[in-house]
Every structure is written in C-alpha cells, then in structure tokens.
Design a protein that fits this description.
alpha+beta; globular; 202 residues; 17% strand; two-stranded parallel sheet
Length: 202
C-alpha cells in the first residue's frame, strides 16, 4: 500500500482492494427486514466479511469506502435514487482531506468544506477529467438475480464483475438514462477534518 501511494498509483491500490473482495464469499442481497424501522438497516463489515456474507449495494459501498479510508485513499459514498456506489480520488489521499486546495472551484470545489456534494454534474466533471474513479461495488458480490438491463447487472461472469467492468458500470450509473443523483459524502472530510463522530453502534 505505502509503495503504491508514494508513487501515486491509487488505481492500482483500488484494484488490489477490489481483487481481495472478489475472493471473499460475498453475495448481493436485500436489506434485513425490520417492520419497526422506517430506514434501511446497514450490515457492519463483520457481518459481511465474517458472517452470512449477504450485503445490499449500500452495505457494499460503505464496506468499500471504509477499506479505502483504512488504506489512506479518499472515497466519496455516492447515493443515487435506489442505489449506492463509491467514487475514489486518483489525485489525493486521506491525508489530503483538509488541504485548502480541495476547496478551489478549479479543483474539487467549494462543496468540500461541508463534506457533502449535492451536484451530480460536479461529480460527473470530477470523474470525466480523471480526478475520481466511480466503482460499482455490487461487482465484487456474487449475484444471479440482478437484471442484466442496468449497469450493475451487465457484464457479470460467474455472478461477479471484473474491476474494469465495475469502473465502466460506475460511470454508466451517472450517464444518460441512469438513476437520479441524490448526494455524495466525503467521509474523510467529515471524520478527519470536521470531526463528526460516527453514530453509536446499536
């Protein structure tokens, strides 16, 4: 990890994380049912990696973003209408989260200061100019039930996606006819710079 980060090879590190997850017995599944809650339950990493191995797109995106943070990458948890995935910076790492240059409109943008990106167009621009890489996190989870009509269902082999296909699917999610963008959260900015404490585990 340290050698890849020192050489600025964020993509190679992302591919290594993705490859490690492909080897785990993770399966795409619906969220746990609880009739008393009005919000989606989120499985923690232990439940996904050491438990039953079932996970929703949101569980998978949060797991992947957490692994990115742990490996000093700078992820955004991207929430679309009915779906979640991750965008990861290819030009900055976790230690750069609070740099003043990140708020520059010609770089990441002024949204960084609050850690919440509300513009799908701004994210598309960051991805298209090569600053961020979008990753379809359901790709490393096995699924034979995701319809092949949407980006997260196309190109699966043995129920999973290659890293390259997961990148293509990620970008397709923001393309014409894709799901509506809701927001993206800069986890490092919120946790490391703004010092927002994680929600207590239930």
């Amino acid at each position: 990890r340290d050698d890849l980060l020192a050489r600025g090879q964020h993509r190679e590190l992302l591919e290594a994380i993705y490859a490690a997850l492909l080897k785990r017995d993770i399966r795409y599944a619906r969220e746990p049912f609880d009739p008393t809650l009005e919000q989606q339950l989120i499985r923690d990493p232990e439940a996904v990696l050491q438990g039953a191995g079932d996970a929703t797109c949101l569980d998978l995106a949060l797991l992947f973003a957490g692994l990115c943070l742990g490996n000093e990458l700078l992820p955004l948890v991207v929430v679309l209408d009915g779906h979640a995935l991750v965008a990861v910076s290819l030009v900055r790492g976790r230690r750069d989260a609070g740099l003043p240059g990140r708020r520059d409109p010609d770089q990441d943008g002024p949204w960084v200061a609050e850690g919440l990106l509300k513009s799908g167009d701004a994210l598309r621009e960051l991805v298209d100019r090569g600053d961020y890489l979008l990753i379809e996190c359901t790709g490393f989870a096995r699924s034979d039930t995701i319809p092949p009509t949407g980006p997260e269902g196309k190109g699966r082999v043995g129920g999973q996606m290659t890293f390259q296909r997961a990148i293509e699917a990620g970008r397709e999610q923001l393309g014409p006819g894709g799901r509506a963008f809701v927001f993206a959260i800069d986890a490092a900015m919120l946790q490391d710079v703004l010092k927002i404490q994680p929600h207590a585990k239930q």
